[in-house]
Input
Amino acid sequence: MGQGLAGATFGDGTGVPLVLIHGFPLDGRMWEPQIGTLAATARVLVPDLRGFGRSPLPRGPHSIEDHARDVAACMDAHGAPKGVLCGFSMGGYVALAFAALFPWRVAGLVLADTRAAADSASAKETRSATARRVLAEGMTFLADDMLFKLLSEKTLRERVDLSRRVWAMMVDQRREGVAAALLAMRDRPSRLDLLRTITCPTLVAVGSQDAVTPPMEAGGFAGLIPGASYVEISGAGHLACVEEPETFNGAVLDLLARAQEERP
Ligand code: MLT
Output
């Protein structure tokens, strides 16, 4: 069952809108370095997934497909039958689930620092243990741990303000929403079979220093998507779209132009 999401729109472009789906454990504010540039070209819709940011907490356990259904309902509420879906990491899992459920609604895909494979058995155990710990202790330990995974060493060393903002956004999230999302990610299926069926313009982007979803893995699954472009963002970590927005935004603008050209 879909849940209502808080979502904001930016820009007044008339083409297919761009839907920016945040990663874990963040919210729509992570896309701030994208919105100014991309909203000059396209209408940009930025939801907070259930349990994150300003969206309501989940009413019970849910799946990544439920997140995708929420995004579809949010697009409906904003008058967007189709969209170019851009998902970062967990947002990429949601974008792929959306493409599996509603392929006719996807005009283009941006898969940013994400993966198509399911979790390994040991990753699933870590998700369960982390969900229990978040519920017991709150967000601080997770934000401390995730910051080193999200940002490259160079960003952590040289951009203290940015590191603080990302950390504060994580600490801001509610433990119930974060724990439920961990279990949804744990149980998500592999999308490797879906990749070969994707027919819309697709971009796979990854930071060259991404240790969470490394370039080797991203390049590998990009090769399974017919006609996909692949961009490695030099010097950036997992959160490449925030660390190196100029390169990331340029690649998304190219993809948007392709998606608008191919509009039926
Ligand atoms: C994210 O950045 O959204 C997470 O690292 C995804 C994950 O934990 O698999």
Summary: The chain has twelve helices and seven strands.
